[in-house]
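Researcher: We're teaching a course module on how sequence relates to structure. For the next exercise, students receive a sequence and then see the predicted structure as tokens, so they can try to spot secondary structure elements on their own. Here is the exercise chain.
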Amino acid sequence: MISSLKITTIGNSTGVILPKEILSKLRVSKGDTLFVTETANGIELTPYDPEVADQLSVAVRVMREDRDALRKLAE
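Model: And here is the predicted structure for the students to work with:
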């Protein structure tokens, strides 16, 4: 999907208006927060907090590596 967005004035700020199709693909609506991340390919716009995603991946790794110890602690 290729789409162009026009930069416009919004109040005293500058911004872009996201079409309904893009909002739908992002699964966001008015009032939701989007996160902007700089990547090797440019700028990425996502509804998911990259820091939380990193923390969750570490937690999953720890749960896999220390499954037996965590099972004992849960008893």
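Model: If you want an answer key for the exercise: Strands lie at 7-10, 13-16, 35-39, 42-46. The mean pLDDT is 86.
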